[in-house]
């Protein structure tokens, strides 16, 4: 039997988005597992380093207090400080990365479950109505055939039958006509319900899932593979870290997902969930970067790698790429609906032509009345739409969307009624040997056979009513992007601002933006502002801009003549 949902673009979008969301959940769960192992490793390393530092402090307490002892005491203190940094990092990964990610997955699972149930329920209604139409039509065909057989029998035997027999046959004929009328009305009602359940199913798909994006494919563990470890750290972690090649092979094993995403009424909820997931992953990366940056000068190499990695992240660009990939070349969708098929339309049966015409005329009259009502409703909605275009303040955005949706549904119902009217009018023209009416240009009617019965189906072209989710840079504030984490430009820096100190560049730094300074080892920079995020603002050779605080060493404070150049 033909599947009524085959070829529906809404269903394809829903299935693709569902698959994409499933891959996103898998990625986040795997990420949580990796982060948990990383946190356990950091805490375990901190405990081991703390234990070693305690042993060293204990054995040093019995040593003669000399310059060598003082140096080794500093080494012990450095080990304790390093252990505390690792412990804080492990705890931060658990509380600021794993827990929010776990909470997000739990919340999204609770949100998506009722949505998926609603989609499944509405899809079952479409299939059930489709099958019910076919079943009821077969019953109507049988009732009509039996009624016609009984009618012909009564007509052929009424001259020879007695009054009692005539009365009995007329009673049978009345009962048959009553059953036929009830079955006909039931069939017509079910057929009219068909487009309603179809629209409900499509509407459920539209409002449930939206779909938004390609997952962020960056390595969270790259800084650890590139950092400069102390001898103690390296001996402890050498066999427990994944290599850069293995790290990237894990993350790039996730495919780029192609998702259909349309232009007018977006599948809003899932896309918002996916956008929230991307935003959270970006926030986790930023938190991770801040914690690792606190390791100080002993981890400066790791900080450079982290900076390079994080500056490559651009959540806004990822979301825009997804939206571009989810665009659809088609601007319309095809809606297939069953038309009413009557016994009277089959010229091969033995029904009398006059009775056939009379029955078809009754059905045409019913269709014409319904079409007139729907047409008036459509004209009213079109007038409201025109008024909204001429006066945008006439109604709010939600009201405009509701009117557009009602206009689309009314147009579909009118097309269905007109297609039924056209089919019956064509049959009437054949009976009266007249020219057939012209086929409507907006639909296509075809027949298909199911065992011993033919079915008429109309394919109606409709505009796509899904709109693309609009992104804004304001919603991505704080996300991992290519912009450094500082405010530009500083409002408190003016031509007469006093410097707050000076610093010396320890490493070369290549500016990536126009408002950054190029540094070479040994350069002296006048500091004018310090930022807690790790970016300072100052002057170098007459040029003002930002530079990373981890690349410089602050000099002892003294008065600096601002007019001089370093």
From TrEMBL:
This is Nitric oxide synthase trafficking. Residues 498-557 form the SH3 domain. It comes from the Eukaryota. InterPro entries: AH/BAR_dom_sf, F_BAR_dom, FCH_dom, HR1_TOCA, Nostrin_SH3, SH3-like_dom_sf, SH3_domain. Residues 1-191 form the F-BAR domain. It is found in: Cytoplasm, Cytoskeleton. The lineage of its organism: Eukaryota, Metazoa, Chordata, Craniata, Vertebrata. Pfam families: FCH, HR1_TOCA, SH3_9. The gene is NOSTRIN. GO terms for cellular component: cytoplasm; organelle; plasma membrane. Keywords: Coiled coil, Cytoplasm, Cytoskeleton, Phosphoprotein, SH3 domain.
